């Protein structure tokens, strides 16, 4: 049985549970329990504070974990990372009060900085040859300058609205992060095999999320142009319509290219374009 540690409640929780469910793994929702067992895969899920997850996986208390790279690197175990999961993308940034003078990172020489990430920030500043006074606090970092605790901060930024709401200005990106799957490095052969199975499923889910299934009608005369725009996995599926001179084309498009490609498809004469989500995608 594999033991997977996920965040009990917080930013990573829902996406972690959804990913496990989309891998076809069923379990009872644990509203107040701290662990659950899957009913159709040899997996036990532990619900923990995210800061504890890297240490538990390093020690082998849990075999696997899902955690932000920021927390993983801060804990000092970057080597546990198996793969990026594409959600909870954010950055760790330095910010100063809106009116404060700031020319370059050297403006922070000798300045006091509040952060929950003293290791990542300390390494970054050392790399830039800057010495600052770090105040480690565990939360609400953005209020530190307004209450006189520090002159600058280093914390997680996503939309930037928390910085804006606290009168702060982002000046440097220190670290980019997303949720990652981590694994203990001494898994036995049986657990390694289960990890492979889980990763195979996670990859199929992630590929499916990045792609859409597209079905459209096109005049035969436009077929070459349509094929150019829709190369598909191998090549598009083409079937004749009941109406002479028309075909139905089915293919897969990348989410990022989707709007660009559909407007070009319309321009070459495609009609009745349907776009469907893909549940799993296995190469
Ligand atoms: N605004 C955000 N946008 C995207 N990802 C974020 C954001 N804030 C945090 N994250 C990511 O989600 C992780 C968990 O954030 P959360 O705020 O839930 O942590 P926490 O308060 O430390 O939780 P815990 O109670 O488990 O210790 C962060 O370490 C980071 O990787
Ligand atoms: O750039 P933004 O989109 O505003 O996001 C950044 C904020 O999100 C996180 O806090 P969260 O809202 O998770 O609350 P927390 O401090 O309780 O963890 C993080 O600690 C920042 O404060
Ligand atoms: Mg935490």
Automatic annotation (TrEMBL):
Record pathway: Amino-acid biosynthesis; L-histidine biosynthesis; L-histidine from 5-phospho-alpha-D-ribose 1-diphosphate: step 1/9
Gene3D superfamilies: 3.30.70.120, Periplasmic binding protein-like II
GO MF assignments: ATP phosphoribosyltransferase activity
E.C. no: 2.4.2.17
PROSITE patterns: ATP_P_PHORIBOSYLTR
Enzyme class, first EC level, given as a word: transferase
Reactions catalysed according to its record: 1-(5-phospho-beta-D-ribosyl)-ATP + diphosphate = 5-phospho-alpha-D-ribose 1-diphosphate + ATP
Top-level taxonomic group: Bacteria
Compartment(s) of residence: Cytoplasm
Keywords (A to Z) from UniProt: Amino-acid biosynthesis, ATP-binding, Cytoplasm, Glycosyltransferase, Histidine biosynthesis, Magnesium, Metal-binding, Nucleotide-binding, Transferase
Domain ATP phosphoribosyltransferase catalytic intervals: 49-203
InterPro entries assigned to the protein according to its UniProt record, in alphabetical order: ATP-PRT_HisG_long (IPR020621), ATP_PRibTrfase_cat (IPR013820), ATP_PRibTrfase_CS (IPR018198), ATP_PRibTrfase_HisG (IPR001348), HisG_C (IPR013115), N-reg_PII-like_a/b (IPR011322), N-reg_PII/ATP_PRibTrfase_C (IPR015867)
Pfam families in the record: HisG, HisG_C
Domain named Histidine biosynthesis HisG C-terminal: residues: 208-280
Cofactor(s) named in the record: Mg(2+)
Activity-regulation annotation: Feedback inhibited by histidine.
Homology family: Belongs to the ATP phosphoribosyltransferase family. Long subfamily.
Known role: Catalyzes the condensation of ATP and 5-phosphoribose 1-diphosphate to form N'-(5'-phosphoribosyl)-ATP (PR-ATP). Has a crucial role in the pathway because the rate of histidine biosynthesis seems to be controlled primarily by regulation of HisG enzymatic activity.
Protein name per the record: ATP phosphoribosyltransferase
Organism of this sequence: Hymenobacter terrestris
Gene: hisG
């Amino acid at each position: 049985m594999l033991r997977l540690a996920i965040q009990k409640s917080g930013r990573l929780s829902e996406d972690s549970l959804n990913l496990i469910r989309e891998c076809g793994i069923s379990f009872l929702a644990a509203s107040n329990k701290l662990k659950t067992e899957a009913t159709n895969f040899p997996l036990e899920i532990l619900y923990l504070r995210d800061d504890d997850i890297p240490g538990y996986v390093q020690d082998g208390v849990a075999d696997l974990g899902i955690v932000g790279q920021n927390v993983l690197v801060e804990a000092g175990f970057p080597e546990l990372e198996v793969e990026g999961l594409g959600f909870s993308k954010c950055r760790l940034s330095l910010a100063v009060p809106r009116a404060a003078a700031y020319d370059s990172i050297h403006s922070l020489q000798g300045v006091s900085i509040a952060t929950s990430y003293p290791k990542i920030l300390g390494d970054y500043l050392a790399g830039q040859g800057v010495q600052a006074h770090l105040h480690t606090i565990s939360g609400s970092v953005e209020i530190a300058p307004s209450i006189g605790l520090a002159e600058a901060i280093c914390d997680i930024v996503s939309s930037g609205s928390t910085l804006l709401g606290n009168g702060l200005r982002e000046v440097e990106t220190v670290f980019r992060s997303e949720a990652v799957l981590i694994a203990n490095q001494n898994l036995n052969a049986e657990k390694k095999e289960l990890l492979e199975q889980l990763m195979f499923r996670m990859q199929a889910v992630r590929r499916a999320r990045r792609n859409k299934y597209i079905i459209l009608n096109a005049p035969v005369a436009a077929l070459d142009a349509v094929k150019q725009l829709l190369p598909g996995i191998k090549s598009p599926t083409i079937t004749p319509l009941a109406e002479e001179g028309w075909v139905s084309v089915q293919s897969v498009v990348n989410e990022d290219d989707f709007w660009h490609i559909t407007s070009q498809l319309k321009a070459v004469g495609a009609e009745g374009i349907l776009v469907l989500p893909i549940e799993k995608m296995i190469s």
